[in-house]
Design brief:
This protein has four helices and six strands, in the order ααββββαβαβ. By secondary structure, the chain is an alpha/beta fold. The chain has one domain: Beta Barrel (Barwin-like endoglucanases), CATH 2.40.40.
Length: about 130
């Protein structure tokens, strides 16, 4: 009985509740994806890594760096796994409802290079701290 009481009290501690709430992120989002590439190729990303437009990487506004996400093109069902290494999207694409920027290599695999924007589902597969 005492062990149960300790478990309940520890589980309700305000600091632990705040930390648990902070790590609970949406496991899936639906919106638009855009791609970025040539203009940023070789530049340092927000995570400090050098961006290679041919790698399977992405920019997301809030997910922790090194989070792995599954991005599904909702128009054709194609999926890729990407590592979040940068922040974005920004500008006009963000205002249009873009929730993730993927590398040009990922856009090729998802088959939306010509379209530029495509409806996607973004699911967290793994993340640091979760």
């Amino acid at each position: 009985m005492a062990g149960l009481l300790v478990t309940i009290l520890v589980g309700c501690h305000p600091d632990l509740e705040a930390r648990n709430a902070a790590t609970k992120r949406p496991r899936a989002q639906v919106g638009l994806a855009s791609y970025y590439g040539p203009g940023f190729h070789g530049e340092r990303t927000a995570s400090g890594r050098i961006f290679n437009q041919n790698e399977m990487v992405a920019a997301h506004p809030t997910l922790e760096f090194d989070t792995v996400v599954r991005v599904t093109n909702l128009e054709n069902g194609r999926r890729v796994l990407l590592r979040v290494i940068d922040r974005g999207p920004y500008g006009k694409n963000r205002r249009k409802g873009t929730i993730i920027d993927v590398s040009k290599g990922a856009a090729r695999r998802l088959r939306f290079i010509r379209d530029g924007l495509v409806p996607v589902r973004v699911e967290v597969v793994s993340a640091p701290g979760i």
